[in-house]
# Entry
Amino acid sequence: MPASSIIQKLSRQVIDKVRHAIISHHKRSGRILFSDTTLRDGEQMPGATLEPHEKVRIALALQDAGVHSLDAGFPASSEADVEAIRMMIGVVTGPVLTALCRTLPADVDVADRALEGNPQHKRGVSLFCGTSPLHRVHKLNRSRTEILKIITDSVSYAAQRFRIVAFSPEDASRTEVDYLCQCYREAIDAGATTIGFPDTVGLLTPEKARDYIKAIQDGVPNLDRALLAVHFHNDLGLAVANTLACIQEGVNVVQCTVNGIGERAGNATLEEVVMALALHADQYQRRFSIDTTKLAPLCHLVAELTGVAVSRMKPIGGANIFATEAGIHQDGLLKNPDTYLPYRPEMVGGGDIQLVLGRHSGRRAVAHRLTELNLSATEAEISVIVELIKKQPKGTVVDDAVLRLLWSQAELSRSGRATHAALKI
# Structure
């Protein structure tokens, strides 16, 4: 064997040992690694297109929040994705940057060029191939054996160019379990360092999601050589619940999007998964590196740049999360914010608690806001103002200007009563 071949073989063995050591370390640590796909799967949402410079802004915010890796784009599908990835090189230096690829050498080559210049330990590819009967028969027209060869050939090809290679069987949640595990086993043997379980059409329940993870852990004996990731869609509104269920079963990587944006009903929501782990550390007992104080600003940034508005009722980033109009709740919040909040605004980088004045508000909230505005009022005047608020037409926003006007009316009412009483005397 030529000396160059021997050196190359030894080099590959060293790389494999280092890679295996890193994977083993991640598994032993019990830490959940967050892989964000806002810039790729999230952007596929109709109407959520991002320009390259906007992707860089979001990528930097995600880096600041502490995500482990970024699904930065699908280079073979768009020159704009290539441009965005190129703009991140040397700028987004914390997370691993990965590019999505079909199981085609040409896709891997484009990804290789797009990520050129990024350190080897900070760049990777994510390959996908349909494995369910629906995909094999109706989409790919390939047999199980043919699909396996496509997977092993493409993963092997990618592993020659990247140290970080992920493989996910598209429509895994509708793939026969025995075949799914075979795909994973052969992908790992071919060089995959991460295997993903995507619920592509979002049909699973938490119980069934856990069953799949257990089956993979039992049916893939070489799983010690790869990280196990999950990727859930939200078609039944269960993406976050499914993700948390799989975290309890020991998965290493969870893929999410900010605000849950994505195909159809979207993806598992990054900020919701993070906060569930943070607030229920006793239950999940899994550490993570996300800075929760960055979450609300991240939600607002993604909403601003994608143009996809956040629902007022959306957890973490919604306008109503720290707002209430109910008098009983307002009274409790003024006495102690924890009475009616699951967490304080500062924990997620949110704004101030908002005591919205409206038909359901009580005297305490009205008095509190009047004091903040340096408007003195007697108990009787506060009662008048509360009644005036309740009589406002539907849709009236009782902002500070309106409140000042109602306060003036209450004062006039008191003055009028006082004058009337004096005349009677």
Observations:
- Residues 418-425 have pLDDT under 50 and may be disordered.
- The two ends are 119 Å apart (CA to CA).
- The CA atoms of residues 30 and 250 lie 8 Å apart.
- The longest strand covers residues 123-130.
